[in-house]
Amino acid sequence: MLASCLLLGACASHEQARTTTGAPAALVDPDATPETVALFQHLKALSQEHILFGHQHATEYGHGWYGEADRSDVKSVVGSHPAVIGVDFSGLSGRTPEEIARNKALLQQQIVDTYNRGGVVTVAWHFNNPIVEETGFYWNDSLSVRTVERLIPGGDYHEAYKAILQTVGALAHDVTGQDGTLAPMIFRPYHEFDGGWFWWGAPHTSREDFVSLWQFTVSYLRDSLDVHNFLYAFSPDVQFNSEADYLDRYPGDAWVDLVGMDDYHDFGRDGHYDLEAGAQRLKIVSDYAKRAGKLAAFTETGLESIPDSTWWTNRLLKTLRTDSLALCYVLVWRNDVRSPTHYYAPFPGHPSVPDFQRFYQDPYTWFETDLPDLYHVSAP
């Protein structure tokens, strides 16, 4: 089970991972920390044979509980945390300084704890609109204004945006694990940009301004703030049916380490199933990653309340196993603390628990207890 990762040898250089044609696959950050490079290499290798299971906010809270040490609904069901833990930078802006400090401390703890256990952290950014804060991260036809063009260089909110990124950068520098190294993170900003529900969505900004925002964000974090423990992930929703559509707002290979997609639509939302369409979209993502030397992932999916008791093996796993996909992880959304229906992973007593246990036991899926050391590579 560990063979694909243990094959990795030699020093931790960003030139170790290679495309399917044998060309070096450079990371976005040539000065990425050795642990970040090792994570990329291991994820690339293991995606040939396995997929990591992830859950958003898994260890922060769950169905009916909050803030308990070393707990997750997934662990309560199968005895292991998810291999990938999703967190969010939403609390690092648009709040009082005191609230931001508290949110930063909670994030630090989650990220460091996950790293110390050997798990993987992926970061979403539900970024509250810095110009029209009352709308949060959503687009509101009555209140919202076009914002992206005002955040990029030359925009009147550009300096304010840099200040927000400085808070992100400060967190990135303050996540030191018990081994004394910084925890790597897969940073996934501006997700689902092809829809119109977020203020950075395609109807609300030009292609050129979106690409400018992406490239400035990466360059400012990397080159000005010296953040070297990020892998950068690009993930639209399902508004594509071809590679050309998928790449419509792609900022370029020099700016992306991982390509992914979010897809609830084809996997049971509102009773709609089209697994063939979902698999075809995943294949577009996976095939591009293979050629470009990128990681590929199913960055968000799930079925709210999981009314289909065999969804895990009959829907999700069945799709993941099609068409020689090479995806390093799949992540389902969060389990709300109070809502009786807003959850995406099972908890003790849920009807889908037996099927989820079969999903866990399948050799293709990896959870946290399956993981080798993802953050180091051994000398040959």
Please provide the ordered H/E string of secondary-structure elements: HHEEEHEHEHHEHEHEHEHEHE
Determine the structural class based on helices, strands and strand pairing: alpha/beta
Number of domains: 1
Low-pLDDT runs: 1-24
Q: Tell me, what's the shape?
A: globular
Report the helical percentage.
25-40%
CATH architecture: Alpha-Beta Barrel
Q: How far do the termini sit from each other?
A: 20 Å
Radius of gyration from CA coordinates:
20 Å
| CATH domain topology | TIM Barrel
Largest sheet, order of strands side by side? 1-4-5-6-7-8-9-10
- The count of DSSP E runs of length 2 or more, i.e. the number of strands, is 11
Number of helical runs? 11
Structure write-up:
- It is a single chain.
- The protein has 380 residues and is an alpha/beta fold.
- The chain has one domain (27-370): Alpha-Beta Barrel (TIM Barrel), CATH 3.20.20.
- Helices cover 32% and strands 12% of the residues.
- Helix 10 runs parallel beside helix 11 (353-361).
- The radius of gyration is 20 Å and the shape is globular.
